[in-house]
Amino acid sequence: GAVVSQHPSRVICKSGTSVKIECRSLDFQATTMFWYRQFPKQSLMLMATSNEGSKATYEQGVEKDKFLINHASLTLSTLTVTSAHPEDSSFYICSVTTGGFGYTFGSGTRLTVV
Amino acid sequence: AQTVTQSQPEMSVQEAETVTLSCTYDTSESDYYLFWYKQPPSRQMILVIRQEAYKQQNATENRFSVNFQKAAKSFSLKISDSQLGDAAMYFCALTDSWGKLQFGAGTQVVVTP
Questions:
Q1: Which parts of B6-104 are beta strand (E)?
Q2: How many helices (DSSP H) and strands (DSSP E) are in chain B?
Q3: pLDDT per position as a tens digit, A71-87
Q4: What are phi and psi of A87, to 5 degrees?
Q5: How far apart are CA A51 and CA A77, in angstroms?
Q6: How are beta strands A32-38 and A44-51 bridged, if at all?
Q7: What is the DSSP letter of B81?
Q8: CA distance A114 to A86
Q9: Quick one: which H or E segment has residue A93?
């Protein structure tokens, strides 16, 4: 499978500021990446599908203007949480699909908004 | 809409014993994949086992095996000879035709010495 690097692993930001999370596919050209959010003791919820060179596809109920996704290259997708608020505090995970329904996950980013 | 149901919030097993985690699902797809992922306290998602729906043979990976009942839409995971390192949250997941993964609520596995 692919090697996926996600940064930062932890970030604390002030309410109202923006935070960018990076997901890099180190050894695989990823045309598609996925972004998930996981609240404590809950499951992973798909937020959006990131497509290289085109707009992301957001799941129902996910604010696309709040969670900006950019997938400008085959190795990098970024998730920017804009005007973050405490309720955005969560664990964010990216995954790379390697074709044939294979998936590799990043190590996740714990976002705390204070 | 697809659904994945894990009805066991927590399962406890003694070392060296066997535990079975249940998962049921619903999908209108004719071809799909089912997965079991493990999430230890580090929260890194680790693939345990994968099953292609068109394959009747149950997948196995060392101490991990599944019982895939397609007609019943059931996909249980059996962990044999449980080890302390098996303690984690286990998620059942199902793909759709777009490659999106739908996860169940998860089952916490506790392994006691």
A1: 10-14, 19-21, 24-26, 33-39, 46-52, 60-61, 64-69, 74-79, 88-95, 101-103
A2: 0, 12
A3: 989 999 999 999 999 99
A4: -70, -10
A5: 9
A6: antiparallel
A7: S
A8: 6
A9: strand A90-97
Which pLDDT does position A98 carry in this prediction?
A: 83
| Dist CA A50 CA A62 (whole Å) | 14
Q: List C-alpha distances in Å: B104 to A86, A109, B17, B34, B50.
A: 26, 21, 24, 11, 15
The two three-digit tokens of residue A74, written as one number: 């085959």
Instruction: Give the pLDDT score at B61.
Output: 95
Pairing of strands A44-51, A57-58: antiparallel
CB atoms < 10 A from the CB of A107, how many?
15
Both tokens assigned to B61: 């990976």
Mean pLDDT for chain B overall: 96
Mutate to test the interface with B, among A105, A110, A111 (most CBs of B within 10 A): A105
Look up residue B71 and give its amino acid.
A
B44 class by beta-carbon count within 10 Å (0-12 exposed, 13-18 middle, 19+ buried): middle
CB contact under 8 A, A103 and B33: no
pLDDT tens for B94-110 read 998 888 999 999 999 99
Residues in B closer than 8 angstroms to A108, CB to CB, are 43-44
Closest CA of chain B from A114, distance in Å: 22
Within 13 A of B65's CA, how many CA atoms are on the CB side?
Answer: 9
